[in-house]
Automatic annotation (TrEMBL):
EC number: 1.3.1.98
Family the entry assigns: Belongs to the MurB family.
Protein name according to UniProt: UDP-N-acetylenolpyruvoylglucosamine reductase
Matches recorded under InterPro entries: FAD-bd_PCMH, FAD-bd_PCMH-like_sf, FAD-bd_PCMH_sub1, FAD-bd_PCMH_sub2, MurB, MurB_C, MurB_C_sf, Oxid_FAD_bind_N
GO MF annotation terms: UDP-N-acetylmuramate dehydrogenase activity
UniProt keywords, alphabetically: Cell cycle, Cell division, Cell shape, Cell wall biogenesis/degradation, Cytoplasm, FAD, Flavoprotein, NADP, Oxidoreductase, Peptidoglycan synthesis
Residues at the catalytic site: R177, S227 (proton donor), E297
Span of domain FAD-binding PCMH-type: 34-198
Localization in the cell: Cytoplasm
Enzyme type, top EC level: oxidoreductase
Location (main, coarse): cytoplasm
Length: 306
């Protein structure tokens, strides 16, 4: 039997039929609208299904990649080999006293809106972050002075061996736009945020103000991967790019935003190759002009086109 057919048949035994796809085009599932095909694209609906897929991939030595909505991720045009696990169907959000419990496939924006509805304060900063809860933990997402590490109590993960494990916030080594989740090969499946009671009107006022700032300054009308570069010590990445006169510069369909220099937008059916080439051009130009090395905040994974 063909190996691909064997893997497909086994996955159908582990996950509901409609939730396994072969040669799925990944750009259709990503915020950036970039990326080639996945050999196998799996969308589990239970924690047990995730465990089953991880265990199977380990037993058969098949690589697996976890994928959120790709708001801070670029996948190369050649796509991803093996199994891609997408947790978009695990999107439940609930309240337990002053805590919000959110599954990893839920959007962190929706978690902040749920907190508002429950008169809970602490997640206001996340009201404009487009990623999933799992992705937010992965990179310790933050904005406007707040970060995930400020409010995270603990998370449940499935480890590299397929075991369900509880991790405290301190276990995850959350730092500026980083954690140890990738190093440990953990899959975040649920997070619990510890918040404080507040007044609906006060929380909403903060969220409305942050939403206005975001919409007025960021190029939300185009697909993008958000802020491309980390903030260099003593500088602002966007200011360095702006002062390098790079806004409006394009390679293929990718362009440095004229609205916010820290964003590279998919303006006209860009390929990942366009996007990466423009990132490297920006890094090279800023380094030459100011002697500052811009470090990527966005992750790049996958294979080049053969």
């Amino acid at each position: 039997m063909d190996n691909k057919q064997y893997i497909h048949d086994k996955l159908l035994d582990l996950v509901k039929k409609d939730n396994v796809k072969v040669d799925e085009v990944l750009k259709n599932h990503l915020y950036t609208k970039l990326g080639g095909k996945a050999d196998f694209f799996v969308t589990p609906t239970t924690f047990e299904e995730i465990q089953n897929v991880v265990t199977f991939s380990n037993e058969e030595s098949i690589p697996f990649t976890l994928l959120g909505n790709g708001s801070n991720l670029i996948i190369k045009d050649g796509g991803i080999r093996g199994i891609v696990i997408n947790l978009k169907r695990l999107d439940d959000i609930s309240t337990d006293g002053n805590t919000i419990v959110a599954q990893s496939g839920a959007r962190i924006i929706d978690a902040s809106r749920h907190a508002l509805k429950e008169h809970l304060s602490g997640l206001e900063f996340a009201c404009g972050i487009p990623g999933t809860v799992g992705g937010a933990l992965y990179m310790n997402a933050g904005a406007y002075g707040g970060e995930i590490k400020d409010v995270l109590d603990y998370a449940y993960v499935i480890d590299r061996h397929g075991k369900l494990v509880k991790r405290s916030a301190s276990d995850l080594e959350l730092d500026y736009r980083t954690s140890n989740i990738d190093k440990n090969k953990d899959i975040v499946i649920e997070a619990t945020f510890s918040l404080k009671s507040g007044k609906f009107e006060d929380i909403k006022e903060v969220m409305d103000d942050l939403t206005y700032k975001r919409e007025s300054k960021q190029p939300l009308e185009y697909p993008s991967c958000g802020s491309v570069f980390k903030r260099p010590p003593g500088y602002f990445a966007g200011k360095l790019i702006q002062d390098s006169h790079l806004q409006g510069t394009n390679i293929g369909g990718a362009e440095v935003s004229t609205k916010h220099a820290g964003f590279i937008i998919n303006k006209d059916n860009a390929t990942t190759t366009d996007y990466i080439s423009l990132i490297e051009h920006v890094q090279k130009t800023v380094k030459e002009k100011f002697g500052v090395k811009l470090e990527r905040e966005v992750r790049i994974i996958g294979d080049d086109l053969s």
